[in-house]
Sequence to fold (228 residues):
Amino acid sequence: MNVVVLTGAGISAESGVPTFRDADGLWEGHRVEDVATPEGYDLQPSVVHRFYDERRASLSRVEPNAAHRALARLEDQLGDRLLVVTQNIDDLHERGGSTRVLHMHGELRSALCRACRGRTPWEHDLADYPPCPRCGVSELRPDVVWFGEIPYQMDRIQDALDAADLFVSIGTSGAVYPAAGFVQFAARAGARTLELNLQPSAGTHLFDDARHGPASSLVPAWVDDLLR
Ligand code: APR
Fold:
């Protein structure tokens, strides 16, 4: 059985990483146009760097939760028949033990050079405009896919959705495309579809099944069911 799991901010919420669109979410305190578009970066790069530098630094204060660990347990059993596609830019899936993870919206612990387009693992701040380790030019930006940019690895994701028998969406509001459309691709390719989310998402009616509650209990319970 081929399983594709799509995750969003909700899977990391109980680890203490803020979501985007909930009451205390990141988009309550920041304008998307300012910190999550190429135009915002061109206008105020220092503001954008501070926003992502703070979030990168905060990763060392959070830990994966039971939902991340349950997906790693599922990978132990399914191997390359499981693919986790995440919209999250944190590294909690990897620290929870998953290895087959695609970060379609990029990663906080990576920097993208606007001069040579190289991607470099990055732990530190970018606000002080360090040189790119590859080409030496001081044009590093957060390696994060902003609104108006094309997500990473869409071909691989499409292939995985085409081959999926089961598609599971975890902790995402279904507000942002193309990820919000994956459920329909998977269903058309013949997969069963399941939503696991705190509350019904925007596209909850598109799923065959849905379970609502906190990811830290829903995800381990679903993995137990699947492996039984
Ligand atoms: N367990 C499960 N789901 C949860 C939990 C929890 N503990 N807490 C919150 N949620 C759910 C919320 O109900 C909401 O539906 O997680 C979802 C989070 O939605 P968003 O904040 O919109 O996050 P996400 O869907 O990942 O956003 C998609 O938007 O701004 C962009 O690039 C950003 O990748 C992000 C994309």
